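Here is one such tokenized protein:
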Amino acid sequence: MNLTNIWNGIVQWFSDSRDRSRLVRDFNKTARNAFVTGTAPTILEASMVTGNKAYKHEMSAWMNTGFCIKALSGRTLSRDEMIFIGKIILANKTLVRQLVALGWDTLMVRDNNSHFGCQWKLIEHADMGGFLD
């Protein structure tokens, strides 16, 4: 590998990192606004975490491949409630494709009382390969 390839890889990583951080900030701002206006019953907060290694794909980033959504409800959520939140996110195909394109491979939903939750393999929900089917 020559020096130019290494440099291009570093530049691309910083660009992707900036885009990933912007998406998390925008998600959190939109989620706060939805709570304040009464559209959402609780505040959702996104963060970048370690993803599930079994969910890696060609576009996975090399670190923090998990997009974690924490429901700040002040109580422990049931599994059904976490699945409901996950399904809402997964129904937004534009968001799912954006997450995949920016290197996330795992969607996680947790409450703010524990580290346990539900997770999904994002690539399976991106409706990719339409021309290949």
Summary: The beta strands are 43-49, 66-72, 106-111, 117-121. Residues 7-11 have pLDDT under 50 and may be disordered. The CA atoms of residues 51 and 66 lie 4 Å apart.
